Amino acid sequence: MALALALGATPTWASPAASPCEAALGTWDYVAPSKPGRAVVTKLADGRHHVVWIVSERGGTAAGAWEGTCEGSRRTWRVLFPSDPGIAGLKVVEEFEVDGDAIRFWLLGPDGKRGPMGGARRLP
Question: Cys-Cys crosslink for 18: which of 7, 22, 34, 110, Cβ 3.0 to 4.6 Å?
């Protein structure tokens, strides 16, 4: 082991970095530029991701539950339970970047371009 450390090798017991999909799981408080709210992102045994979210808006509250898949730093969601019943079943694609306890995210438009950025901080 001393030789490995002397040569600058990484010991075999070093834990690998979490994948972006795993790093994005948890309970999040939205921060500016997002509207105030909270999201809880979980992963089921079959690999599907679920998010339940609520956002406070002037004059009301919006909420929803989505399920989807995650690959790299992109999640493809299907809207399950929206505040607006007209969008149930809609497919939503999101790109995200996790940096410790902070996340930035963008919903992608039909042309693949990022929409406005949202942000959140992980709750303990």
Answer: 22
Q: Which two tokens stand for residue 93?
A: 């694609």
Q: What contacts 24+ positions apart, CB below 8 Å, involve 37-44?
A: 38/123, 39/120
User: 32, 119 in Cβ contact below 8 A?
Assistant: yes
- CB distance 59 to 109 below 8 Å: no
Q: Write out the DSSP string of 59-120.
A: TEEEEEEEEEEEETTEEEEEEEEESSGGGTT-EEEEEEEEETTEEEEEEEPTTS-EEEEEEE
Distance CA 117, CA 106 (A): 5
pLDDT band at 34 (very low <50, low <70, confident <90, very high): very high
Q: What is the mean pLDDT of the chain?
A: 87
86: alpha, beta or left? (left if phi > 0; alpha if psi -120 to 50): alpha
Q: What pLDDT is attached to residue 57?
A: 80
